[in-house]
Specification:
CLAMP, 211 residues, 2 domains, single chain, 6 helices, mainly alpha
């Protein structure tokens, strides 16, 4: 009976507003009321007219406060910070270059000994006499191995030296173009403040004399 009354009331209201709304708008409104309120009328009555079992879910959320920022007095200008970071990168690259050079100096003798041992193993056994040609070949092979290892070490040291010099040059350029910290603090030379006070006092005496 309540649904019938609701449909009748809806038809009456739609008839009253035919002048204000178009036919499409009236059909859309009728469709909305019919497919929502009227169709689910008993569901609304059941949910709103009876006591329902409540299921309460509790979740604990721990919120951490953000870290306290450092005082502004300890802040660094962005340009100065970037300059310091670049200088630190150049220092690290220089240290890595020196470390690689030392490691190569330690590794090359081991490589040289390994290659010499392999060359000696290919030679005739110790109890067998060597001919002049075999001895010359063995000596030439040993000299060649020594020269190749030495050449490799010299080439790497030269390249590493040039790289380190280039890094030092970049650091020198950065030092020359270092940003001026803000605010600019200029320390007066000894006696500068005193001379400034004397100059102000002299100007004050001249002003009184003119009066």
């Amino acid at each position: 009976c309540s649904v019938t009354a609701a449909v009748a009331a809806l038809g009456s209201k739609l008839g009253d507003y035919q002048v204000h709304f178009s036919a499409d708008h009236l059909l859309a409104l009728c469709d909305y009321v019919h497919n929502t309120l009227i169709r689910h009328h008993r569901l609304y009555q059941y949910v709103l007219g009876r006591d329902q079992d409540v299921q309460l879910t509790v979740a604990r959320l721990e919120v951490c406060a953000p870290p306290r920022p450092l005082p502004l007095a300890q802040g660094v200008d962005r340009a100065s910070w970037r300059h310091e970071q670049r200088v630190a990168e150049l220092r690290l690259a220089e240290a890595q270059g020196r470390t690689c050079t030392l490691l190569l100096k330690e590794a090359l003798p081991l490589e040289r000994e390994h290659r010499l041992q392999r060359a000696f193993l290919e030679a005739p056994p110790p109890g067998q006499a060597l001919s002049r040609e075999e001895l010359e070949n063995l000596i030439r092979e040993a000299i060649r191995i020594q020269m190749e290892c030495l050449q490799e070490l010299l080439q790497y040291e030269i390249q590493s030296t040039f790289d380190i010099l280039d890094l030092k040059l970049q650091k020198k350029v950065l030092d020359l173009s270092a940003p001026v910290p803000f605010p600019l603090c200029i320390a007066g030379q000894p006696g500068q403040d005193e001379s400034l006070k004397l100059h102000k006092a002299s100007r004050a005496r001249k002003g009184r004399a003119k009066k």
